Write the structure tokens for this entry.
Amino acid sequence: MTGRLGPPFRADHVGSLLRPETVRRARGDRKSGTITQAELRAIEDAAIREVVRRQEAIGLRLVTDGEIRRESWHMDFYEQIGGVVQTGGKGVVPFRNEGGEVPFEVDGVRITAPLTLKKTIFGEDFAFLKSVAHATPKLTIPAPSVLHRRGGPALVDPEVYPDIEQVWHDLTAVYADEVAALGALGCSYLQLDDTSFATLCDPAHRAAMKQLGADGSRIHETYIRLFNESLAKKPATMAVCTHTCRGNFRSAWFAEGGYDYIAEALFNELKVDGFFLEYDDERSGGFEPLRFVPKGKMVVLGLVTTKRRALEAKDELKRRIKEAARYVPLDQICLSPQCGFSSTVAGNDISEEEQFAKLRLVVETAREIWGEA
């Protein structure tokens, strides 16, 4: 940690915000060729200035750019790694919600050349955020393991990488250089989103790892190693957290199960300052796994859902925080939304005003519990 008041803050959030309609329209205009890339970026700049202003106005002590420039929380990052390409083939991830299946069509991805860092990914985006923020600017990027999960059995060209350990070596080297470069730009709060950890709590997902040639019962140990090696060049001034959830697309999910299976290894071995944990409904299980969280690490409880419009009752949030404090000290707990409000351009079934009402609720609740946001 960078100090008691350093990240993560008592009232925190995971990064992605709903995209303003002006940005959605402009992105469509850019695709149709009716505006230039420079014109699109100017529109995005204006939207980010406004979303930063609104975050600061409600009392958040950190701000993100809402990932407003991205189509997807993860693919916009991976596609900028040298050697990673989209194949054009389509796959379907079977998301679901209370109403039934919500199919998510995704592009195939493949490693066709040695992995390299061509430039600081999101470096210009972070520099702009830092230039317009008064609060701590926070950046989110996907963790290395998600590329493995996302790519499927055909992820690696065996002529390029005959041994998966070579992939891990080069991938973590890319991440280590990326983290160092972001630190040089002044990034003091970095979040690595890693859906792999939460989804591996689901027995069905552990069984499906056979398709990747991996042992689902042990792969989380490899993913923890990759994560830690990716931080090899992290500056001492940078706080790093991870967020994990069970899927977030059009108010739907694709996994379930409590943290019990991975808790001891994850909380003790992952070299982070804090864990953003999805806890908005019964799919996440109970708070008992939090007993493995060691002193010095923060737990950010994602009790406020981004999937449904209804605003949570403040008294219920306080009750659940008190329950969690049975397993981890209250001074190691923070509060946040359960995931991003718009992890992809499709977003969730929630309005921009409902989104900010939930963020205000997080800040107000944190102040009433801890006396700070």
In short: The first strand starts at residue 62 and ends at 63. Strands lie at 62-63, 81-97, 100-117, 136-137, 139-142, 189-193, 239-244, 274-278, 298-304, 333-337. Residues 303 and 317 are 7 Å apart (CA to CA). The domain at 67-370 is CATH 3.20.20.210 (TIM Barrel).
